[in-house]
Amino acid sequence: MDFAEFAATAAAIDEETADLEIQSLVAETLQEGGDDLATLVRFLLGRVFPAHDSRTLDIGPRLCYEAIARAAGQNVDADDVETRLAELGEIGAVAASYDFGGQQGLAAFGDGSRETLTVAEVESRLRELAAADGAGSQETKLDVLFGLFNRCSDDEARYLARLVLAEMRIGVGGGTVREAIAEAFDVSVESVQRALQLSNDYGLVAETAQDGGEDGLAEIHLEIGRPVQAMLAQTGTVSGALDDWDRVGVEVKYDGARVQVHYDGEEVTLYSRNMEDVTEPLPEIVATVEERVDVPVILDGEVVAVDDEGSPLPFQQVLRRFRRKHDVAKAQEDVALRLHAFDCLHADGEDLLGAPLVERHDRLVAAFDGEKSSEVSKLWLCEDAETIEGIETDALAGGHEGIMLKQPDAPYTPGKRGQNWRKRKPDVETLDLVVTGAEWGEGRRASVLGTFELSVRAGDGYETIGKVATGITDEQLADVTDLLEPYIVAESGTDVDIDPAVVFEVGYEEIQSSPTYSSGYALRFPRFLSIREDKAPADADSLARVERLVETGDD
């Protein structure tokens, strides 16, 4: 398929407001996808790689602006592109506003004329971007991007720019594609949903539905080495769990980082909550699995930092290890880690997502030599509040966050934040918020960012809900500044605008109505708690959740 045809389809979807019409447009596109089907699905979702693939294009806004400027002509630079972005408000509109096609350069094609771009070629070139690494990689990325933009029509440039910066935003989400696959290839939504849960790959599922129908989808299984989304929890209460369930599964809630363990019997691969490969910085977790587990498995668990006595350390200590790419052995000496596995998704060739929690936990215990093990989180089955409160008291005394409440008979549902898992933390309420702005400090803090603008998800964008400046040490401020500086997109005096990329966990005392912030709410006494490096902006808390907290009084 020509990339121009994809761009025209994206434009038609972009202009449509009715959900069913959008679904039909997507279904028609999938039916015409042919060999490009998997790529088309991912492009429509604003992705180049499957969700389980940790590769990224690693293209910052500034590099994209430079590529656009180079393709636009000698009288345009990246600052001009940024100025036009401020006027038009969206990078796709900016790219479409320039007349590309006449610039020469290392990555220009032929004589500068617009040779037809295909979907397959765009994907191939974007994969080259993701593979570029080391010295000279930024210039390579710039050359490849320039070469693509130099061959684009207005609509092609619009959607290429959005795709490159992961800002497709045409109203196509996972649910739309799921329904469209079922419509396009005459298969049930349930079979598509099951295949998506097991593969975490919309492109693969679309191809399978096209080629094999219901029978083909039924053959999709969990695959060791292909991570799936983690099951998520909502905030809950002990009384609510006891009212809803005959008995309550209780586990310790660890102050660590989520990790998915894949072991094929020979090799261990570890994935973060965002499905990034974190095997290399966690060698002792690899060694633990190799030593203790005797069958191929996919496990869900938490990695916790511990001191010399084995007592848990704060979450930030875990992140120091997750971020480490060099001198891992030294980092291992400084911060020791321990695995607490609490679920088993696959064991010895058998998928267990549909099995009840109690069965999955039995398989988890069996995977660790069938013995009681400190690596396996204990599961208590309780029928009264007094017993649960006793477990919580012991968990808090042990330095942990609190407890998890789980429905003992519930299946494991990847990516779902349902009522079957509930987290109970007795301390300050928290929200996971996206950093969208900041202010440079004053005096001795003039070289670091000191106050941070916080936003919640709202539709395709973000709405402000407050600022936080307390709870961050000077050492943390330097680290946070280093983390955020690559995402600064504009500055005015001491104020900076930041591309949504980093998530803070923020504690607060109360949520109040306020005209000061665009969300209509403000946090009372906000306090920085941690950087949620295990969360992407898409996983941050939403305005809808804030509204529910205010309505129910749970704040």
For this entry, give a set of tags.
single chain; 555 residues; alpha+beta; DNA ligase i, domain 1; D-amino Acid Aminotransferase, Chain A, domain 1; OB fold (Dihydrolipoamide Acetyltransferase, E2P); 3 domains; 7-stranded antiparallel sheet; 5-stranded mixed sheet; 20 helices; 39% helix
Number of helices: 20
Q: What is the count of structural domains? A: 3
The largest sheet is: 7 strands, antiparallel
The CATH topology of the largest domain turns out to be D-amino Acid Aminotransferase, Chain A, domain 1
The whole-angstrom Rg is 25 Å
CATH class term of the largest domain: Alpha Beta
DSSP E strands, number: 19
The CATH superfamily of the largest domain bears the name: DNA ligase/mRNA capping enzyme
Average pLDDT taken over every residue: 90
Counting helices, strands and paired strands, the structural category is alpha+beta
Question: How far from one another are the termini?
Answer: 51 Å
